[in-house]
Design a protein that fits this description.
mainly alpha; elongated; 62 residues; 3 helices; 56% helix
């Protein structure tokens, strides 16, 4: 029974250490995205604007 308490304490300690390391890395900018903004202009825009002729075109209704 004492082994369970010891393993529980060790697992909580390890979890706290990993949580502190994660918070430390986020605060230091480890997960900042520095690549995407530099290549964003290379991708095509997903929204394509229609020309004025296409906007005026009407289709006959039945």
């Amino acid at each position: 029974m004492s082994v369970i308490y010891m393993l529980l304490a060790i697992s909580i300690l390890v979890a706290i250490i990993f949580f502190v390391a994660f918070i430390f890395s986020v605060k230091n900018g480890q997960y900042d995205d520095s690549y995407t903004p530099s290549v964003r202009m290379l991708f095509e825009d997903e929204l394509v604007k229609k020309s004025p002729k296409e906007k005026e075109q009407t289709y006959p209704t039945k």
